[in-house]
Write a structure and sequence with these properties.
This protein is of the alpha/beta class. The protein has four helices and seven strands, in the order E-H-E-H-E-E-H-H-E-E-E. The N and C termini lie close together (about 5 Å).
Length: about 140
C-alpha cells in the first residue's frame, strides 16, 4: 500500500495506526534516505503499541528498547553496521525471541539476516514535509 503524508505528525499517525494492530514477533524493515522520517514513523509505532515515553533515534546506541506498552519495541539503527555478522554480535536472535516488535532502520545493511518482514520505504515527496510511504508485507505485491 502507498500512503502520502504532508507532515511529521501525519507520518507518526500512520505509524501509530500500524502499532495498534501489529502482532508480536513482527520485524519492520525500514528503507529511505537520511531524514526521510523513519524515526518519526517509529515514534508513532511506539505510541500505537502503548508506549508513553520519549522515542529517539538509536544512531549511536544501535538499539533502543521501549517497554511498558502492549508489546516491547526494539528500535535498531543499522546505518553504522558493516553487515549481518555485527547484527548477530549484538544479540539479534535474542531480540527476535523476546516476542516484541523489531523496527530496523537502514535494514538494507543487514538484509540477509532479516526474517520475513513488513517492509516500509519512506521517500521525500514534492514538498519539504511530504513523504511517500510504501508498506509491503513480504509475500505481497505493492
Amino acid at each position: 500500500m502507498e500512503y502520502h503524508t504532508g507532515s511529521e505528525a501525519e507520518t507518526e499517525a500512520l505509524g501509530e495506526e500500524l502499532g495498534r494492530t501489529v502482532p508480536a514477533g513482527t520485524v519492520i524493515a525500514f528503507t529511505g534516505d537520511l531524514g526521510a522520517g523513519k524515526t518519526a514513523f517509529t515514534r508513532g509505532l511506539a505510541r500505537g503499541l502503548g508506549y508513553p515515553g520519549r522515542v529517539t533515534s538509536p544512531t549511536f546506541t544501535v538499539v533502543n528498547e521501549y517497554e511498558g506498552g502492549r508489546l516491547p519495541l526494539f528500535h535498531f539503527d543499522m546505518y553504522r553496521l558493516g553487515g549481518a555478522d555485527e547484527l548477530f554480535d549484538i544479540g539479534w536472535e535474542d531480540y527476535l525471541r523476546r516476542g516484541g516488535v523489531c523496527a530496523v532502520e537502514w535494514s538494507e545493511n543487514v538484509a540477509e539476516a532479516l526474517p520475513a518482514a513488513v517492509r516500509i520505504d519512506i521517500r521525500r515527496g514534492e514538498g519539504d514535509s511530504d513523504r511517500v510511504i510504501t508498506i509491503t508485507q513480504e509475500g505481497e505485491s505493492t
